[in-house]
Amino acid sequence: MGATIKWDEVEQGQELPAAEYQVQRLNLVMYAGASGDFNPIHWNERYAKSVGLPDVIAHGMYTMAQGGRYVTDWAGDPAAVVDYGVRFSSMVVVPDDDKGATISVSGIIEEKLPDKRVVVVLTARSGDSRVLSKARAVVQLA
Amino acid sequence: MALNRDFIGRAYSSPTPYEVSRLKIKEFAAAIGDANPIYRDAEAAKAAGHPDVVAPPTFPIVFALAGAGEGLNDPEFGLDWSMVVHGEQRFTYDRPIYAGDRLLCTSTISEIRSVGRNEFITVRGDVTTVDGDPVCTSFNVIVERGGAK
To answer: Can you give the residue ranges of the MaoC-like domain (chain A) (predicted)?
Structure first.
């Protein structure tokens, strides 16, 4: 149990490898079922447009989950994340086509904490928008 | 209409424990597109030093708001759900969540503030085992657009 990344081997200011995650309508339908959030703005284009949205949008928690996946993949252990928070600053619009939307995530080690912990600050974008802000994870490294 | 400030500090507890299952974790991991075997395969999780499959970091959203629904849906509170968006979310973890855990959540409406025409409601969810050991804390900020006018 534990992260595969060693605290001694990372530096403040270090950039983590960027990653891209696709999101299609099917993912949102699956996420609605798994999370229990059946708000129709996440799967019904007719409803989404009727309340003034450009199209179906992803659950904020789906986008937050992609940031979480980014951090756990880097750290090497899901249990290494001890604190994870985000602000939902813009929506991820998911068109009904074969490609869907792309969420691009990057991260930087903002601070090295005592007890072999680090603060990772994430940037998540979709199209021209920054979809998460104040996205920050505290990770227990080896 | 502004939200009823009398609700600040009110706490709501889940009536029954939430039982974390391997299947629900697998379903959640599939939904977020994460193929990590530690979420799907108990043997892989044990090989990595865990007692059973581990839940992804955002998994507590599945149950952490369940208790608060009673308060947020109370007509006396005055929340118009059709105007609600998720503003912020944070989890702090005392320990990982594993399949087989039986968890309780107490949700507290901890803050309501007006920013411009919007109402910001913070719901704190304290998640423990049925024995009272702390597991994680959820901080959920929902925004009622236009609610402060």
So the answer is: 16-108
Indicate whether B50 belongs to any domain: no
Which of B39, B50, B91 is the mutation pick for testing A, counting most A CBs within 10 A?
B91
B86 touches chain A (CB under 8 A): yes
Residue B38 in any domain: the answer is: no
* Structural domains of chain A, ranges and CATH numbers in brackets: 7-140 (3.10.129.10)
Using CA coordinates, name the residue in chain B closest to A25. B31
For residue A68, what is the nearest residue in chain B, using CA coordinates? B57
Tell me whether B21 touches chain A (CB under 8 Å): no
Which amino acid appears at position B133 of this protein? D
B30 in a domain, yes or no?
A: no
| CB proximity B39 to A under 8 Å | yes
Contact A83 B24 (CB under 8 A): no
Q: Mean per-residue pLDDT for B94-99?
A: 98
Interface pTM, i.e. ipTM = 0.96
User: pLDDT (tens digit, 9 = 90+) per residue, B58-77?
Assistant: 999 999 887 788 899 999 99
Q: What is the DSSP letter of A96?
A: S
Total structural domains within chain B: 1
Measured in whole angstroms, the distance separating CA B14 from the mean position of its chain's CA atoms is 11
Q: Return the SS3 of B106.
A: strand
Name the amino acid, one letter, at A109.
I
